[in-house]
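Q: Okay, next protein. This is Acetyl-coenzyme A synthetase from Altererythrobacter epoxidivorans. I've checked the sequence twice, so it should be correct. Can you predict the 3D structure?
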Amino acid sequence: MTDQAVQQEWVRMPAAAADGAACNASQYEAMYARSIEDADGFWAEQAARLDWFEKPTKVADWSFDPVDIKWFEDGKLNICHNAVDRHVDAGNGNRVALIFEPDDPEGEVRHITYAELQGEVVRMANSLKKLGVAKGDRVTIYMPMVPEGAFAMLACARIGAIHSVIFGGFSPDAIAGRVEDCESDWIVTADQGLRGSKKVPLKANVDAALEKVPAKGVLVVSHTGADVAMTEGRDHWYHEYSADVADECPCEPMNAEDPLFILYTSGSTGSPKGVVHTTGGYSVWTETTFRYVFDYRPGEIYWCTADIGWVTGHSYIVYGPLQNGATALMFEGVPNYPDHDRFWAVCEKHKVNIFYTAPTAIRALMREGEGHVAKHDLSSLRVMGSVGEPINPEAWRWYHETVGGGTVPIVDTWWQTETGGIMITTLPGAHDMKPGSAGKPFFGVCPQLVDNDGAVLEGATEGNLCITRSWPGQARTVYGDHDRFIQTYFSTYKGKYFTGDGCRRDKDGYYWITGRVDDVINVSGHRMGTAEVESALVLHAKVSEAAVVGYPHDIKGQGIYCYVTLNAGEEHSDELMGELRQWVRKEIGPIATPDHLHFTPALPKTRSGKIMRRILRKIAENDYGSLGDTSTLADPGIVDTLIDGRMNR
Ligand code: WTA
């Protein structure tokens, strides 16, 4: 690269961004160094911003071989107290905690103060108790993007119940699987959700799921007012059921290592795993990362466009912002309803200062042209973030220039469900940026790149991304299957946490995530296991075998490409293609809808019967020149058949 090109890689931090910032460049260097050299001292200090019922005397106690991770283990606290009550206790009860912007732009906006939030959470908590929910019980939350979803999460945390939030786009089968896996007897849902004026039949989906697995009680929030079926003795309208509950409910003192929530996420094999986060470390991690990464200042309006069904919603709509006493906007709708300017209209309407979204949304809006942005006054924006997948430099620049007017720092935050919070990012007042690079490790994070044999790669290089030290927000286990936790994350490279991502580190120590190196794909920022889509496909009576890979997609980042072989005697047709698409939607949910179905008489297999996915990925990418060694295939001729099939559509 020429010097000039290298120069152009950088986008300088606007000088004003450092004024009053939570962390400037020299502070970052000093704080990062201390977070490694004196990790216990550093994290004890961060933890001290929270209220503890019993202050921890121990900070970190962990090992990655054998795997045993504890933080603040003898401390007692409650994240709901830190997110809600302590702000009220401090006299900030009138501050707005949540702003609700409904799907319909003409609909009723809600401003919920911290004092009101406390009342709502207590009401929900006491309703859960009335149902019979006790500390340690699992509660499933299947909600639209309405404040009651956050109330339900905080209510669980308040009474020490473990929440398992399921994204509202998942199917009844997916709900049933998750409810069964964590033996959750209770569900909080709503009659319906609304997305782009379309109704999502949440309660009906729960009913269908509960035909497969039992539940003791379902609380139903009335949102659209739809007339939904209610099962006597099991289902209760929340507004009726909560009418007579007490208006006090103390926060349960939780041990720092007591589980806070389970969140199901996809891996390279098997069904989704219930990733478990515990109370103390997660509280400290989300409070600290939110504070430094978004550089939140009192009075500012912060908006994260994620759904509470994903980890981004957990950490950066609910727990991170609220622990910081921030005002967080919750948006029910979608970026393109009623028009492609909705995000910008909402930013203008609520004078949003900090905006956090996903590359897939940026790319989709970029395609619709600048006009939609230009219509709105976006001068309130001060920090903008990106999360969920690699952002291509073109989309980054559009975001920076067209949305941010070239003056707003961007934080491209790399992290995962398992990491609990942000791991690699620039800080708005500390770092120059490079479009497409997440940037530098957050405090306490030690990234390491290794080759496929586990050899450590130094300096400017590319490899598999591992993390060598524990951090407070790290997941502790997979619910009900600790061996799977160890196998998935700590066995590929012994003694290290393996992220599943590929990554490049440049000479400036900036990290560039290149995407997953395992069989996980990232579709519109949603993580999906190819194995899950395969299992759904082979459940269809006409399908014999299926192999699913990701392929580049302009808007979604990756699309879902399915190779399908049919049972003998079955003919492929456009009709069957439509049927299989519907089938996968029904089995998993609309987010798993195949983008491309490729019927083939056979899959490329080695003599021992292993599918050579590398070849399938290349063909899906239309990259036939570098298929590599195909001589180990049982039938090398299948490669040409597959290429023909790819080119003829
Ligand atoms: C990807 C979402 C590049 C990555 C918070 C990771 C990213 C997976 C970024 C986790 C980013 C997330 N740049 N890639 N800024 N953020 N990813 O568990 O592949 O839904 O492993 O957590 O998303 O997805 P998850």
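A: Here is a summary of the prediction. The pocket of WTA is lined by residues 265, 310-312, 386-390, 412-417, 438, 499-501, 513, 515-516, 522, 527 (CB under 6 Å). The chain has 20 helices and 33 strands.
Q: Noted. On to the next one.
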